[in-house]
Every structure is written in C-alpha cells, then in structure tokens.
Write a structure and sequence with these properties.
By secondary structure, this protein is of the alpha/beta class. Helices cover 39% and strands 15% of the residues. The chain contains 15 helices and 13 strands. The strands form two sheets. A seven-stranded parallel β-sheet has the order 3-2-1-4-5-6-7, sandwiched between helices. Helix 7 links the parallel strand 8 and strand 9. The longest helix is centred in the last third of the chain and has 19 residues. It is elongated and about 65 Å long.
Length: 421
C-alpha cells in the first residue's frame, strides 16, 4: 500500500489546478436509491466543472427500478432516488458484480486509468458479510497506485464486531475518508481505530433553487400555512406524531395543511404492503384532522421536487431515529430555503442549531405542536428561519460540494504524481 500523506489544504481557498479523470464507484441509475442519486448528482457537477468521470456501477443483485413517488437528492437511511435514468447521465465504464471476483479485477483495471477513485461506502451495497468485498477492491487499487477517497454514508454508533472490522479495514486502505457531518466525524475518530489526519467532512449536496424560482414557486400565499413531509414511507418516519400534533392546534383557528408526499418504501411494501400508509390515513380520521392532511403520491423529477419543496411554509421531519448522522431530505429542505421542524436526530441538531429550524424531542406530539404553533404564529420568526436556511444553502449546492471533492482529488493526484529524476 502506498504511503498516505496527512491532510493538508484540501479546503483552502485555492482553486483546482487541473482537470482530472475521476473514477466513481457506486450504485447508479436506473437503480433508485439514495447512493445512486448521490453519485449521479456528484458526477454531473464534476463533469460541469470539466472533469472526466468514469462510472463503476455496483450491481448488488437488486437493480430493479425501485421507484418512489417523490424523489430528491437522497437520504441515506430512506433510500429515495432521483428517478433519472442512464440516458440522463454518463456511460457506465464498468460494473462491479457482487460475488463475482473477476469483476473486482476488471473494475480495478478500469480505475487504474483514473487520477483518483471516489468509492461510495455503505455496508449493504457490496458483496460478502457486511459488504466486505469492498476490501478486495481497495486492496487492488492500492497495489495499482490509485489514490482513493472513500465516502462513508454510514458510521454505526453500535456496530457489530464485523462491521467495525470492515470499516476500520476500509479506513486503513483509503487515502481519504469523507464523512458528511461533524457528528459522523466525531463518532468515527472517537469510536473507531482510524487515522484522523485523513478524515474530511464534506456535506451532502443538494439542488439549490435560483432566486427566480424561489420567488415564483415560494411559499403559497394563503390563509393557511403549508406543512410538508416527504420521502419513502415506512415505520420510523414518525409521521403519526405530526398527525397527533395537528389535533392539538385547536387554539390557533384554522389548522395548517399538512402534505405527506411519497409512497411506501419498496422493501417495506414487499413485507407489509401499504400498512403504514393506511394506518396514517386511519389515524388522521381518528384524530379529527383528516380534512387538513393530504397524501400525495405524484411522481416528481428533481426540478419539480425542488419547486414543490420551495412552495411549503415549513418542512417537518419527525423521524423516530436517534442515530441518523446524514439526512439528504434535511439538506434538500435547507437548500430550498425552507424552515424545518425536526426531531433531535444528530444531523438535525447540527444543521439547525444556527436558527434554520427548531429541534424537538422524539415521539412528542405536544412538543411538535408547540413548535408548529410558534412558527406559524410568528411571521418574523418564520422569515428569520428561512433567511438562515437561504444563507446555508450555497454551501450545500452540488457545485460547491463537487468543488470540494475536486480539490481533494487535486491534492491526492499531486501527491501520487511520479517524481521526475
């Protein structure tokens, strides 16, 4: 394995010195999942900056079109995708087929032509126990002298022994490890045996609407605020708590409208059908708020979704998870300039602390109702939250995120350049 150089100036103000040929290993459209969407968006932004991107698509044996009604920039845990197809992106240079050792060698050969390889990591997308086939790929890339940037989409708080060993082995072979939040960074360097000098934090990207679009499709002017939750549906989304919270808002006159956008997650549907969705509908009737709750399973492409999110007054993310360190839906909401009310999962605490939203306890409809009441009854607060979201948005744009990956690639490529003798 080549000697790794500690991180120096990856995020200084300097610009990228050259255009690179970058390999990108990930699930990829037409598969619909958060990582595929992430990869396609990053690829597009890198290409727009003049880099060549060679896509290595992971074939995990489940590349069926897992479509959902509402598709955005992706949320690692929710696995919702953009709905784009190969025709909208670059060609696939090679395919990594889980369980086929020969494909690993072929992929390594293809990536050996690149200046750097960006490898998306999630336990469930690679073959082997806890996706440990990725280690064979990283080993071959190291032997061929290809610098690697491994993007960690999951950093378990309570890993199994084998999950820990896989992640630490990945860290031992990567030239750089990218996490998307400070929480993930702190968890990684505090709980795992990794070289903290190679760990870099780059946020999840999002599509940022133009000021013209925001002005045209911004929050609808009406007598009732519009609340929005979107993404693939299933237990753990906590939407039932928001429905219960709406029932507690009798004191404010007309209740806000609440749109729940999305269809049941394909894996949940396969096991339980639309049971969760139907339970939410039944709950809205039982709580007496059915007239203010709507379920929207309309298909929207990325541009349409961006306009849709921008039209909401407030985005509500009432997730039950206490361990979610990366939420693409949260990033999408902030990028669209929308105030957010969210439960206290790690990424929400981190991103909303500056004032772009309100964080409430998990599973607490009273706290949710209080936050909704506070926001919709105070126009100045709502405006201030939206302003802070708009302030954060440019740093979350895919162009800004791609630039940070490009600068990191620039540094690694220069480190690995042969020295003239």
């Amino acid at each position: 394995m080549p000697t790794r150089t500690p991180l120096r100036t990856a995020f200084s103000a300097r610009t990228v010195s050259t255009h690179h040929r970058i390999g990108l290993v990930s699930t990829y459209p037409p598969k619909h999942c958060g990582l595929a969407t992430f990869a396609a968006a990053l690829e597009s932004a890198l290409r727009q900056s003049g880099h060549r991107v060679d896509i290595v698509r992971i074939n995990d044996g489940d590349n069926r079109g897992e479509t959902d009604a509402i598709r955005g920039s992706g949320e690692t845990d929710a696995n919702h995708g953009s709905g784009e197809t190969d025709a909208n992106h670059g060609s696939v240079a090679a395919e990594l087929v889980n369980g086929v050792a020969a494909s690993i060698t072929l992929v390594a050969d293809v990536l050996s032509r690149c200046d750097v390889a960006i490898v998306q990591h999630e336990y469930g997308i690679y073959g082997g126990a806890d996706g440990d086939e990725v280690l064979s790929l990283l080993e071959l890339l190291g032997a061929r002298g290809v610098p690697t940037i491994v993007v960690l989409h999951t950093v378990p708080l309570h890993p199994t022994a084998h999950q820990r060993s896989v992640l630490e082995a990945v860290a031992g072979m990567a030239d750089r490890l990218v996490v998307m939040t400070a929480t993930a960074h702190d968890r990684l360097v505090g709980s795992y045996s990794v070289d903290d000098t190679i760990v870099v934090t780059i946020p999840h990207g999002a599509s940022v609407p133009s000021p013209v679009l925001v002005n045209e499709f911004g929050p609808r002017r009406s007598d009732r605020p519009e609340l929005l939750t979107w993404g693939l549906l299933g237990p753990g989304k906590g939407i039932e708590h928001t429905i219960d919270a709406l029932a507690l808002l009798d004191d404010i006159g007309l209740r806000p409208r609440y749109t729940i956008a999305g269809v049941t997650h394909p894996k949940v549907f396969a096991a339980h059908g639309d049971e969760y969705r139907h339970s939410l509908i039944q709950r809205s009737f039982a709580m007496g708020v059915a007239g203010t709750v709507s379920f929207d399973d309309t298909y929207r492409n990325l541009a349409q979704l961006t306009r849709f999110v921008a039209s909401a007054s407030v985005v509500v993310l009432p997730y039950d998870s206490r361990d979610q360190v990366t939420s693409g839906v949260l990033v999408d909401a902030i990028a669209a300039g929308r105030p957010v009310i969210a439960t206290a999962f790690p990424h929400a605490i981190e991103l909303l602390t500056g004032g772009a939203g309100i964080v409430v306890p998990h599973g607490d409809p009273v706290a949710l109702a209080d936050a909704i009441r506070r926001v919709i009854s105070d126009p100045d607060l709502l405006a201030a939250m939206a302003a802070e979201a708009r302030r954060l948005a440019p740093s979350l744009s895919w162009s800004a995120v791609a630039d940070r990956y490009a600068r990191l690639s620039d540094e690694l490529a220069s480190i690995h350049e042969p020295v003239a003798i």
